[in-house]
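New to this. Comment on this protein:
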Amino acid sequence: MKINIWSDIRCPFCYIGKKKFEKALDAFAEKDKVEVIWRSFQLDPNLETKPGISAVDHIAAIKGISKKDAGEMHDHVTRVAKEAGLDFNFEKAVVANSFNAHRLIQLAKTKGLGNEAEEQLFKAHFTEGKNIDDEETLINTAIAVGLNKEEVKDMLASGAFAKEVEEDERQAHAIGVRGVPFFVFNDKYAVSGAQSPDTFLQALQQSWQAFETENKPLPKA
């Protein structure tokens, strides 16, 4: 059974949702028969990478709020992340466009390493304060998950996997996705947002029942 997940590396609730979903998947009896497919989605495709601007200043500017309110927003998200077992360090986060990071994930998917690349890029952005639009960061992340350095360098120097990123986003818009994370189970059941593990487990069980029914062998004549 396939589960498609649209997410953006810059989205904190995508990382939180990933952890909650994985907790549910670990508790799912048929987890070994589930294929998780990560799909690209950019919340702000036109974002300019600006390493010199703090995440708080950036949020304050784009939302038209005070730095104090922006800081409180980050504090709230940090607490929610902590509950999911994640350490967020917004004070170190780099304002960066995620397009090249998504291209790297698309490359990793061709090697069966999509989940590993997704995880490491989330960690790099939210925990380690690395620039996910920086070539060195992307290459080091790729090497850490088992990708070939030269292949990654060639990809970054070209337009490779741009079409795959754009196609994922086109599919998302076609089915009405307006925010991420967005989970589609068995091409039938959708869950939006970083829901609780119990909600994800219920979706897994419900979609599995439908999947089994659809793939049940026909009775012999």
Residues 99 and 188 are 28 Å apart (CA to CA). The first strand starts at residue 2 and ends at 7. The chain is about 50% helix and 10% strand.
